[in-house]
Amino acid sequence: MKKLSMLLVLLMFSFTVACGETNSETETEGDQSNTQEKEESESAETESVMDHVEVVTEAVQQDDGIHFRFELINQHSEDVLVTFPSGKQYDIIVKKGDELVYQYSDDKVFTEALVEETIESGESKVWEEVWQPGQEVEPGEYSVEMQLLPSKLGQEDVEEGLFTNNFTVQIADRAEETSADGDELIRNVEVTGENGSYQVTGEVHPSIGNLYYEVEDGHNYLVEKTEIPVEGEDWYTFSIDVSIAEKDLPFNGVIMMMIFNEDRSYTVPVQLEQIQ
């Protein structure tokens, strides 16, 4: 009888141990699964937006001046909110050696309020500026610094200088590149009006072919590409009426009209108004 009791006690102890081991293994597997999910969640939360955005800059000389272009590309799977600490969203600095010859922000006044831009997933935001150096700038190689100046991407602070690109650009003597016969195809251009309502008149020679215009403020197109009818076989007088809604006018900046032919090989810049 005593031996039988001992045997029962041993069997019960073995069953208890086995159950304990099974529960322990289940708890361990559960803990590992929870830990893995937690690590994956933390990894997703700590993934930097900076790794999924790219800024592309370029400077190209055209007939009407040097065209600067910023493009901020959102390669993230989600939309990105870009915050600027003021209305100064970018700056452009051009130097000849150590001599400063152009800075976009000179003599400009910017709002001190925050400016926010949302860039959708897979999309981009473009900023453009045109510098008309005039005859005082000698042809040659110039150093260019283009700075996009956001303070935040989403909730992440942007390190100063992160979106700054430095490169060189060759500025040619445009006078040497004009046609040998010096043909003038657009002349006597005049502008009247203000505060978004303008009339532009001038004369165009029909040999220019199809003629177009567009209006922009250096950041956005205010009037998309529009054809100007050209008639007859001699100089033709054209008149363009431009109307821009008050809400679309820039806080400060220059409203420019570009008049150009089909392939933009002949371009005439026309300043409609400078808003400050």
UniProtKB/TrEMBL annotation:
Which Gene3D superfamilies does the entry mention?
Answer: Intracellular proteinase inhibitor BsuPI
Signal peptide residues on this chain, from the entry's feature table: 1-18
> Keywords, A to Z?
Signal
Q: Which residues form the Intracellular proteinase inhibitor BsuPI domain?
A: 55-149
Q: Which domain of life is it from?
A: Bacteria
> According to the UniProt record, where is the region Disordered?
22-49
- The entry's protein name is Intracellular proteinase inhibitor BsuPI domain-containing protein
